[in-house]
Structure formats: C-alpha cells, structure tokens
Design brief:
D-amino Acid Aminotransferase, Chain A, domain 1; D-amino Acid Aminotransferase, Chain A, domain 2; 2 domains; nine-stranded mixed β-sheet; six-stranded antiparallel β-sheet; 15 strands; binds 4'-deoxy-4'-aminopyridoxal-5'-phosphate; L-valine-2-oxoglutarate transaminase activity; branched-chain amino acid biosynthesis
Length: about 325
Amino acid sequence: TWQEATGWTGPPRLGPFGPLTISPAMVGLHYGQVVFEGLKAYRWQDGTLAVFRPDAHARRFQRSAERMAMPHLPEEYFLQAVDAFVATDGTALPAGDPALSLYLRPVMFASEACLALRPSREYTFLLMGFVTGGFFSDEPNPIAVLVSREYSRAAPGGTGQAKAAGNYAGAFLAQQAAVDAGCDQVVWVDAAEQRWIEELGGMNIFFVRGSGPGATVVTPALTGTLLPGVTRDSLLTLARERGYPVSEERISVEQWRDECRSGLITETFACGTAAVVTPVGRVVDGGTTWHVGDEKPGPVTLELRQALIDLHLGWTADSHGWSRLIS
Ligand code: PMP
C-alpha cells in the first residue's frame, strides 16, 4: 500500500527547498521509475488562491503511477500536499496578475537502493514549486514547430500516456533538432506509421477547420501514446460550450499541410499547463515549410485562450468546479 511503501500517513511536512539524500543505487535513478505532474495555482484579484483542477492532476498521477507499477497515492494526500504548499508559497504571488502563477511539480520516485530489475519497494513523494511567468511569452505570439520523423516519443504499449520521466528523456534530441531548425517545439507523430500527429514536447495540439461560427475544433484522439492533457480536456469542454463542434480524430501531417495550404485548416494551437494556449504559426517538416493561416493568432484560438485564462484568474464564474480555493 501507499503507507507501506512511503511510511507517509500525512499531514504533509513542509521544508525549505534543498538537496535530497539518495542512494547511488536508487531504482528511480537507474531505471526511471519516476512519475510527476505539473499544475498551477493563481491568485485572483481579491487575493483568493485558486489551484486549477488539482483533482484531475491527482487522478492522472494515479494512472501514471499504475502504469509504472508504483503505489496508488490517495487523491486526498495529493490534495493535502497541494493545499499546504499553496497556502504558504502562494502568498508570494501578486493578486490578479495574469502574467504570474505558482507552478507546482509533484513527483514520486522509486527510492529503494536495488539494482535488480523489479519495482522498488520504497517510494518518495514530494512536491516542489515556484512562481513563474508563461512558458512562452505572455502575449499569444505564434510559435514555429518541427515535425520529428526521425525519433519517436512513445510506442504502442509503452508509457506514452503516463507522465513518466523517461518519456522526456527520449525527447531531448528531437527538441534539440527543433531548436537547431529555428523552431520552438517538436511535433511528435505516431511511432508505427510516423505520420499521425500526436502532441508537442510538453503540450497537446489543436486545429481549427473552417472559420466563423461553423468552425470545428479538432484534436488528435487519445490513442494511448499521447498524454491526456488536463488543458486539452478543459478546452474541449469550453469549445463545446461555445457552440463549436469538436472532433477527436486521427490527423496526419500530410493532411495538416494540405489543409493549411487549401485554407481548410485556419488555426493551430498548442496547449498545456505551462503553455496555456499558444498559437502555432509555422511548421517545418524535413525540407517543407508551411504557414497556418496568416501566421497570426486566430479568433478561435484567442477566444478559447481568453475563456481559459478567465477561469484561471476567477474573472468568470467557475461553473465546472475546476478551481480549488485555498484558505
Ligand atoms: N503532453 C505532454 C507530453 C506534456 O508534458 C504536457 C504537460 N503536462 C501536456 C501534453 C499537456 O498536459 P496538461 O494540459 O495536463 O498540462
């Protein structure tokens, strides 16, 4: 059980940020039995501290842990850690500043000293965090992306849908290639056929087909090899509520290119806890480059982005129960 594996019965202990003591033979260090989350707290204009959908992050953390043969962290413990951290460090946030948030990084790692290839019998759970601005600029400036055809992030049956440390290790070279090509991010395609769009390095991806009120909001279906983003889920709900038809479907890089060129796809954006909603303006795929729309943030992108930010900052009523208020 969780208690046997960690010895933790709560309440969480708060301490200063500093080095950890680990064994050189720690399982997590050698074999990557490590899962984590990334979520944010915001400070509203009236001073209220609000964490965005920590319950959804707690459940994804549990699913990630399950895939990595790690113990089930009860949701209430996850939330206790979030609450305790935000109640103390959240006070460093200025009220109502849309540019700043408190980024929270819960992590659980296999802390037993053992070089045998089996799941650890000891685990450490900790949560760190820091005040941060947006991942990209706070203005919705479009980014450029590079399609990775050489490397893949996740294979069928692998750990792609888990927020596991190893998924990111495999991505460093591809992300480096994106930067070398003058791009901000890598676009992952499926490992089997190397053509179905999955996600970006640390974000999910959306497309807008058509324009005006009849526009359709499209995102790759959850195939088991991409991360089910909490932001992705929130935006699907917000798009539906605004009357846009939404579609979770397979979309290939070739379709993306051709539909951008024919004007059928009018917008593309990335989304995630860190990136919030960030427009994609230019795509590089080998020797081919194409633009999305006129390379400026599109109206649907901006509308959904604002709807999400309004909820983060408590500017609109929280009809979904997504904000956890910390006192
Ligand atoms: N995909 C990957 C690979 C990610 O690391 C993230 C960030 N957690 C996302 C998508 C977006 O997920 P979320 O909206 O839950 O932050």
